[in-house]
Every structure is written in structure tokens, then in C-alpha cells.
Model the fold of this input.
Amino acid sequence: MIRVGIVDDHKVVVTGLKGILEFDGRIRVVGTAHDLAGGKRLLTEHSPDVLVLDARMPDSRGLMEIPDLRKLSPSTRVLVLTGYGDVALQQALSFGADALLTKELASDVIVDTICSWFPAAANSLENLSEREKEVGRLAAGGLTNKEIAEKLFISVNTIKTHLARVLEKLDVRDRTELARKWPERI
Done:
């Protein structure tokens, strides 16, 4: 799991971003903060793999704070999110950010950026939810979508959704490849 901290002064942004990141399955949000002081505590207490940082917050000097944040947790990657077009990528990178993305981007771009820094997290069973593991195990065992749906008391469409996520997260093409790669211990 990729451990992420989020620092943004807008609570709705923090809540939404947390949901988006954790929905992916490869990411766990280990802490959130709504100001820079809280962000510093988050770094000190949790040392996340990635810090998602709002470019502008009331109690900070903006991007100039990044070197101080890096000192608190040198191995943490810093992803700056901005809602303003006037923050230059070059400026963010010069202060030590690993990436700068605008809040207008699709959520999958943010997730993909974070996950691209940790390729080992991409194809692991740990990335699957418990339900996805259950569906994957049954599909790898040869059950049809209808049989899985009856066994788990959920709809066939829900099974299709879970199975699509399993195939994508494990980077396999079809049920046959899933059956070959599925470990017996799950």
C-alpha cells in the first residue's frame, strides 16, 4: 500500500481526495491536515510515502515551504495540487516538489501519478479489496459471473464491475490468465 498524507485548507477537497485515492485500492491515506502546521505534524508522525499539498494555504508561504517539509520527512514525495493557473511547474519543481497537478484534472491522473512512483504496488493482491479478492478467487476457480453472483448474493453487474477491477489491478487480460496467476493461499 502506498501511504499518503493530504494537506489542503478546504475540508471538502480533503474529504473528496481521500475518497478518490482510497477507492483505487493501492493507496491508504494515513493522515490529513487543513493547515501547514498540521501538515508538519502529519509528516513527523506518519512519514507518508507521498504528501499531497495544496499550493496555497492561509498559514504558509506557498511553495517556498516545500524545503522545510522535505527536512521533516526526506523520503516523502511531494505532489502539489493547485487550483490556480498562475503557479508555474518550474517554480514548484525548483522548491523541491516531485510533481504539480491542477485540481481540474481527472482524478485518475492524480492516482496514476502517485502510483507511477511506486511500481511495486501496481500488481499486488494487497491492492484488492476483500470483495475483489473473493470475486477474483471464485472467477479463477472457474465459476461464471452468474454463479459468483448467486454465491455472494449480489448482482451479476456488480460481479462484472469487481472482476474488471481485479483484472485491471492485477494487470491480467482475462479469466484464463487470472486462473494461472491466482495464488492458492487466497
Summary: The first helix runs from residue 11 to 23. The mean pLDDT is 86.
